[in-house]
User: Fold this.
Amino acid sequence: MYMSVYNLKKCTHISFQRRGRVGEVFVMAGENISQLIQRAHEAAGRDDVKGAKQLVLQALVGIKEEQDRLWTGLGPVVSEQRLADWFGECSFIFNQIGEYVQSARYFYTVTIDIVAVPIVLYLAVGMIAYKQHLNVLACLSSTHHSSKFFNGKSIKRFLYELDRIAKLAERRKRWQVSVMIDGDINRIHVDLRRFLMLGPENIREHPGRKEALWRTARCFLQLGNHMQVKKVCSIILQEFCEYNDVEALEIWSRALVISKDFDLALQKCELALRYAKV
Assistant:
């Protein structure tokens, strides 16, 4: 069915009108998100934990909608930098009210999902806060006080969330982010042992640390840091097994091939094949 010129012009005019309205709605949505975040900051400043959490969660609904628009390219989109700022503000508010797992989640959302943001800058600034929480926790423990927000259960949730994000970072090919998160997890385990005597003396005895070292070795390989690949694979082979870990040997051999150390690479490959057949 053909459309008349008059109807075509009419529909085109309506289309432009609708686009204009979408743009207006987009601007209003952005302003609303910023206002919600500002109100959440104010609530956190008044120690209104419940109010701050409710406001920041409302803001996140709008932020994720804008993130979806950015990824799909549908309708007017917000800049990556503004998304990063919003997520960063939400992370800071969660941090203020003791929601450390949520804070970590949205802090690392910036480093993994939003390309425009300098990763190292965000990590350097953000992890200071998490380390401060551990120092506070240690002080509370040493003076026999109780922490309302940061008990043993929440620490485990926090570490679990960091491990989950490190896995996500590797899948998204954010190799440096994954390596840095695993390093932070190790430092947290060390602090927990030193301050609170929690966990085994050797952090590598924690469940999941071997898998994390495999992940770190793979990421260092992708980053071209062959010396670190050798170091991590050596730790796996010497401390987690009787020098018979096939994946560690394979990763190490790949690094050796890239660095043109073919004789040693062949030795590692032969060892990997031998243990793979067992």
Notes: The longest helix spans residues 5-45.
